[in-house]
Specification:
Blueprint lengths: L2 H14 L2 E6 L2 E10 L4 E3 L2 E2 L2 E8 L11 E4 L2 E3 L7 E3 L9 E4 L19 H13 L3
Antiparallel strand pairs: 1-2, 2-5, 3-4, 3-7, 6-9, 8-9
């Protein structure tokens, strides 16, 4: 694992606890076990307050900004399927996932230090903006 990824994984775990990392085909994948959701999200018919979320980074990270995050297939907002999503073909974490089209708002500006500027923590926090939109 690259040093930058190690440093950012430590930072992410400080704020989100159980975070897994896996490498697949030169890409780094992450799984946050219990990401908090705004009211209205469901898995099937059941209301959920947290969900696992996964995402991957290109080998050129942090220069290349991340794109997209995934929630389990079957997630919906008040019974409606979310917009701008597609089935994820495969991940190192198994299961069936729905890829949300998403990228950071504003400028992606990583700094030399992992804790400054744009990083995995700011990336993961940005998911809340998309999830507040509902569908």
């Amino acid at each position: 694992m690259r040093l930058r990824i190690e440093q950012e994984l430590v930072l992410l775990r400080r704020h989100h606890g159980d975070v897994e990392h896996a490498e697949l085909n030169g890409e780094d994948w992450f799984r946050v076990a219990a990401y908090p959701l705004p009211a209205g999200w469901r898995l099937g018919e059941a209301a959920i307050e947290t969900t696992p979320v996964i995402f991957k980074l290109a080998a050129t990270y942090p220069t290349a900004q991340p794109y997209g995050f995934c929630l389990p297939t079957g997630v919906n907002f008040k019974g409606a399927a979310p917009n701008n999503c597609a089935a994820l073909p495969a991940s190192p974490f198994g299961g069936s996932w729905l890829l949300f089209s998403w990228q950071p708002d504003g400028n992606w500006a990583p700094t030399e230090q992992a804790e400054g500027g744009s990083n995995l923590l700011s990336w993961v926090r940005s998911f809340a903006h998309r999830l507040k939109e509902g569908i």
